[in-house]
Amino acid sequence: MTGSTRFLATLAISALLTLAAMTAGATAALPAMSCGIVSAAGHSWIVISKGVSCTSAKNVTRALAARTAALHAGQKRTVTSPLAHFTCVISNHGKPAGSCAATAAKSIVWLVA
Length: 113
Fold this sequence. Notes:
The chain contains two helices and six strands; from the N terminus they run H-E-E-H-E-E-E-E. It is an alpha+beta fold. It has one domain. Strands 1-2-6-5-4-3 form a six-stranded antiparallel β-sheet, sandwiched between helices. It is globular.
């Protein structure tokens, strides 16, 4: 893992944990976990999940990778999720990335490595 990839993974995990802490309230928050790096749509993607199996998180990333990578800088889209009851947002703010969430306890984040 390169220094920039490690930095992005740490940044994404920190953002996810901060979001979880803010939205979980008094309930016990599930820890976010790194699901590794997935190759899809000609890119490597860092995948992080919370309350969702890594297998499902990687499948969502593969399913939405091409649409995520195709966005131009500054674009953002809400897209249909491959998982029931999840809402997904893909965007490109310097680097392509996406996230899906059902509740504060169930979410997936992916970003280009």
